[in-house]
Amino acid sequence: MADQPAGPDTPRQRVVRVPGSRRARLTPVPGTDPDPESGPAVVEKKARVVRGPKGPNDDQLIQDIPPHY
């Protein structure tokens, strides 16, 4: 699983307590980027979903508002 055998000189992740939190945090793995990815620079448009033919009451069902709103 690891490229290098774990030894006493190998840097490892440590568990760090976070003040005011119930969960602990791990330090970043050596040689990795701890910053999250920012996502794609260009936002692609989603393909439109092709549905079957409209039924006789589709327009009414789209306009109806459920009673809990």
List the helices and strands and how they pair.
Elements lengths: L14 E3 L6 E3 L31 H6 L6
Antiparallel strand pairs: 1-2
Question: Could you characterize the architecture of this molecule?
Answer:
The chain is low in regular secondary structure. It is built from 1 helix and 2 strands; from the N terminus they run ββα. Strands 1-2 form a two-stranded antiparallel ribbon. The longest helix is centred in the C-terminal third of the chain and has 6 residues. The chain is elongated, with a radius of gyration of 26 Å. It starts with 14 loop residues before the first strand and ends in a 6-residue tail after the last helix. The model has no long low-confidence stretch (mean pLDDT 78).
